[in-house]
Design brief:
Blueprint (H helix, E strand, L loop, with lengths): L19 H13 L1 H12 L8 E4 L8 E4 L2 E2 L1 H5 L4 H4 L3 E6 L6 E5 H17 L7 E5 L4 H13 L2 E4 L6 H11 L3 E5 L2 E3 L2 E3 L1 H9 L7 E5 L13 E3 H5 L11 E2 L3 E7 L7 E6 L1 H14 L7 E4 L6 H13 L3 E5 L10 H9 L3 E4 L1 H8 L4 H4 L8 E5 L5 H11 L6 E4 L33 E4 L5 E2 L3 E7 L9 E2 L3 H9 L6 E9 L5 E6 L3 E4 L2 E4 H9 L4 E11 L3 E10 L7 H14 L8 E4 L13 H8 L16 H8 L4
Parallel strand pairs: 4-17, 6-7, 6-8, 7-14, 8-11, 11-12, 16-17, 16-18, 18-19, 19-20, 30-31
Antiparallel strand pairs: 1-2, 3-13, 4-5, 9-10, 14-15, 15-24, 21-22, 21-23, 23-25, 25-26, 27-28, 29-30
Length: 643
C-alpha cells in the first residue's frame, strides 16, 4: 500500500482564489467582523433585487436566526438570468445517461427556457408562492428544471430520493402537505428500471391533498394513469411560454425542505431559506473547489440528498459553472465508468463519496489506469469519514498524485460545507477535513458540555450561526430546538464526534448518536427498527452499525422473534425485502441476528451500548454490565455473533 503522508499546497494551486496568505486574513475578518464580512460576500456573489436592512439577527435559544433581513432576490435569477448576457451559449448542464453513449448538453439559454416552461406548467396547476411541491425523480435534467422551476415562482420544493419506497414517499408528502408531485414514468439506474410512477400511485392512495401529478416521460414504460390527476409534462410544456418572470423573494422565504434522519422518530423536514443558503452554497462552491471559468465539474451525488441540492444544482449554477449530472452508478456497465465519463467530458473537478471510492478500489486499479483522466485538477469527498487507505488510493491512483483532495464535512442541516481544506491554502492530511470555512466556529465539548481546549477529542459543535443554517424543522420548530440546540445550550450540536490535532485540524470520527451512515446515507436506527417490528414474525428489534469495508457502516439487526416463529433463511429474505418495501433498499439490514431476548436494564431499556460492542466484535470492552436485568442474555449474544 501507499505510505500515508501529508501534502503541502501544490505549485499549481498557488494562484487559487484562497491561498495560504489570504485564508488566515479572511478567516479572522469573518470571525471578528461577521456582519461586514458577510455583507461584502453577499454583494460580491449574489444579485439582489433590493438590499437587506440587517445582516443577521436572532439566537440559538429561540432558533430564530435570520440573515440579510429584508433583502430581496430570486435564486433562479442568480443561477440563470444573470449569466445570460455572457453565457447564454455556454453549457450549464451536461447530462450523462445511465447507458454509455447517451448524453445531452444544456446551455444556460436552454436551461432558462426549460425552467420557465416548467414554472409556467406549475402555475397552470395552481401552484403559488409558498406551496409545497414534491419532486420524486431520477437523475435527469428535468429534476434540475423542477427544483429551479419551484424556486422561480417561490414554491418550496421537497425532493424525495428516487430510491425511497412508496411508504417513505407518502410520509414525506403528508408531512410537508404537498399539493403537487413531479415524477417520471420510470427511472433507469445501472441498467435496472425503477417504477417511480407506480411508487407514486401507491403513495398517493393515502395523500388526498395531492391534486396533480406531473409525469416526465423518461422511459416510455407502461404505467397506470389517473385521469384528472396525472399529466404528461411534455404535453403541457409544449403549450406554455418559455419565459416566466422570477418571483421576488425575501431572503428568509423558504427555498426547500429536505427530509433527513435523526436518532429518534420519523425523518425531519429540514427547512432552508433563500438568501443565506444561496450565498453559502455559491461561495463555498467557488472557493473550496476553486472553480475556474470554463471548467467542467462533476458531483456524483443524487439530487435527492443535500449534496445534490447544494453542489449539483445551486452552488455550481449560481457560479455560472458547467455541472455534470449522471443518471447511473459508478460500476455500470463496468467499474471504469466514472473515469470514462471524466475523459468523455473532460471533467476538471470530481466530487464523490468515500463509499464509492472504496467500492471502486476493491475492483482493482486497471479500471482506472486504462483511462487518461488528464483533465482532472481537483478531487473531493463527502458524506462520511474517509479512511486514509481510500484517501491514498484516490490521490495516487485516480489523481495520479497531481490533484489535491478536499475532504468536505457538512450536513443537510448546515446547507453548505463547514469544514474543509482549501486546495490553495491547506496542508492535506489523509482523513482530516482540516479547517473551518469562513465565518464558521467549530468547537469540541465533552459530554458535560465543557469546552475541550487545544488538541483533543469531543462532540463537535458550532458556536454561532452561519448563513446557510437550518431555520426550522418543517411544522415542528420545537423539534429543531430539541435536536440541535438543547443538548449543549448555546451551541449547535452536529451529532458527530471529532478530534482536533496540534495544528488545529479537525478529524471527524463519525456519529455519536443513534444515526447510521451506510454508504454515506443517513438513517436512524429507530427507523429501521420500526420497519422490522411491523413484520408479524418480529417481537422486538434493535439495530446498530458495525464497520463495513465498502459501506463504511453496515446495518446489524438484533431480532427477537414472536414465540411461535422459527427463524429460517426464507424468513430472513422476507424481512430484508420487507424493510426495502417500508423504507427503501438502502435500509436493508446486512446482518440479522436472532435472539430470544435483547439485553435490557431492569427498567426495560435496551442497552444499545452493549449491542454496538457485540456488533463491532469488541467483546473485551463491554463496559459496565451490572445494570442488566439478565446478564446471561449477553453471553448468548456474544456466542452467536453473526458475520
Ligand atoms: C457525515 C451530507 C466525515 C457526518 C453532506 C454528518 C462526514 C453526516 C463528512 C451528514 C466528512 C459528512 N467526513 N463525516 N467529510 N461529510 N459526514 O446530512 O456524520 O446526508 O453528520 O449530509 O455525514 O449527512 P447528510
Amino acid at each position: 500500500m501507499f505510505k500515508i503522508k501529508n501534502h503541502a499546497v501544490k505549485e499549481s494551486f498557488k494562484t487559487a482564489y484562497i491561498t495560504e496568505q489570504n485564508y488566515q486574513e479572511l478567516y479572522q475578518e469573518s470571525i471578528n467582523n461577521p456582519d461586514a464580512f458577510w455583507a461584502e460576500q453577499a454583494k460580491v456573489h449574489l444579485h439582489w433585487f433590493s438590499p437587506w436592512e440587517k445582516v443577521y439577527q436572532g439566537d440559538f435559544a429561540q432558533g430564530d436566526v435570520a440573515w440579510f433581513v429584508g433583502g430581496k432576490l430570486n435564486v433562479t435569477y442568480n443561477c440563470i438570468d444573470r449569466h445570460l448576457p455572457t453565457k447564454a451559449n455556454q453549457t450549464a448542464i451536461i447530462w450523462e445517461a445511465d447507458e454509455p453513449g447517451q448524453s445531452l448538453i444544456i446551455t444556460y439559454q436552454m436551461l432558462h427556457d426549460h425552467v420557465c416552461r416548467m414554472a409556467n406548467v406549475l402555475k397552470e396547476q395552481g401552484v403559488k408562492k409558498g406551496d409545497r411541491v414534491c419532486i420524486y425523480m431520477p437523475m435527469i435534467p428535468e429534476a434540475a428544471y423542477a427544483m429551479l422551476a419551484c424556486a422561480r415562482i417561490g414554491a418550496i420544493h421537497s425532493v424525495v430520493f428516487g430510491g425511497f419506497s412508496p411508504e417513505s414517499l407518502k410520509e414525506r408528502i403528508l408531512d410537508a402537505d404537498c399539493s403537487v408531485v413531479i415524477t417520471a414514468d420510470e427511472g433507469v439506474r445501472g441498467g435496472k428500471f425503477i417504477p417511480l410512477k407506480q411508487n407514486t400511485d401507491a403513495a398517493l392512495e393515502h395523500c388526498p391533498d395531492v391534486h396533480s401529478v406531473i409525469v416526465i416521460k423518461r422511459n416510455g414504460g407502461n404505467i397506470a394513469w389517473k385521469a384528472g390527476r396525472d399529466i404528461w409534462y411534455h404535453e403541457l410544456a409544449a403549450k406554455v411560454a418559455s419565459s416566466c418572470p422570477p418571483e421576488t423573494m425575501d431572503a428568509e422565504d423558504p427555498l426547500f425542505i429536505l427530509y433527513t434522519s435523526g436518532s429518534t422518530g420519523k425523518p425531519k423536514g429540514v427547512l432552508h431559506t433563500t438568501g443565506g443558503y444561496l450565498l453559502q452554497a455559491t461561495m463555498s462552491f467557488k472557493y473550496i473547489f476553486d472553480y475556474q471559468p470554463g471548467e467542467v465539474y462533476w458531483c456524483t451525488a443524487d439530487v435527492g440528498w443535500v449534496t445534490g441540492h447544494s453542489y449539483i444544482i445551486y452552488g455550481p449554477l449560481a457560479n455560472g459553472a458547467t455541472t455534470l449530472m449522471f443518471e447511473g452508478v459508478p460500476t455500470y456497465p463496468t467499474p471504469a465508468r466514472c473515469w470514462e465519463v471524466v475523459d468523455k467530458h473532460n471533467v476538471n473537478i470530481f466530487y464523490t463519496a468515500p463509499t464509492a471510492i472504496r467500492a471502486l478500489m476493491a475492483q482493482g486499479r486497471e479500471f482506472v489506469s486504462n483511462t487518461s483522466r488528464k483533465s482532472l485538477r481537483l478531487l473531493g469527498t463527502v458524506g462520511e469519514p474517509i479512511n486514509p487507505e481510500a484517501w491514498e488510493w484516490y490521490y495516487h491512483v485516480v489523481g495520479d498524485g497531481r490533484c489535491p483532495i478536499v475532504d468536505t464535512w457538512w450536513q443537510t442541516e448546515t446547507g453548505a460545507i463547514l469544514i474543509s481544506p482549501f486546495p490553495g491554502a491547506s496542508t492535506l492530511k489523509p482523513g482530516s477535513a482540516t479547517k473551518p470555512f469562513f465565518g464558521v466556529k467549530p468547537a469540541l465539548v465533552d459530554n458535560n458540555g465543557q469546552l475541550v481546549e487545544g488538541p483533543g477529542s469531543g462532540n463537535l459543535v458550532i458556536t454561532g450561526s452561519w448563513p446557510s443554517q437550518i431555520r426550522t424543522v418543517y411544522g415542528n420548530h420545537q423539534r429543531m430546538l430539541d435536536t440541535y440546540f438543547s443538548t449543549y445550550p448555546g451551541y449547535y450540536f452536529t451529532g458527530d464526534g471529532a478530534r482536533r490535532d496540534e495544528d488545529g485540524d479537525y478529524w471527524i470520527t463519525g456519529r455519536v448518536d443513534d444515526v447510521l451512515n451506510v454508504s454515506g446515507h443517513r438513517m436512524g436506527t429507530a427507523e429501521v427498527e420500526s420497519a422490522l417490528v411491523l413484520h408479524d414474525a418480529v417481537a422486538e428489534a434493535a439495530v446498530v452499525g458495525y464497520p463495513h469495508e465498502i459501506k463504511g457502516q453496515g446495518i446489524y439487526a438484533f431480532i427477537s422473534p414472536m414465540h411461535d416463529i422459527e427463524p429460517s433463511p426464507q424468513l430472513e429474505a422476507e424481512l430484508r425485502s420487507f424493510v426495502t418495501k417500508e423504507i427503501g433498499p438502502i435500509a436493508k439490514p446486512d446482518i440479522l441476528h436472532w435472539t430470544p431476548a435483547l439485553p435490557k436494564t431492569r427498567s426495560g431499556k435496551i442497552m444499545r451500548r452493549i449491542l454496538r460492542k457485540i456488533a463491532c466484535n469488541e467483546f473485551d470492552s463491554l463496559g459496565d454490565t451490572t445494570t442488566l436485568a439478565d446478564p446471561s442474555v449477553m453471553e448468548t449474544l456474544i456466542k452467536n455473533r453473526q458475520t
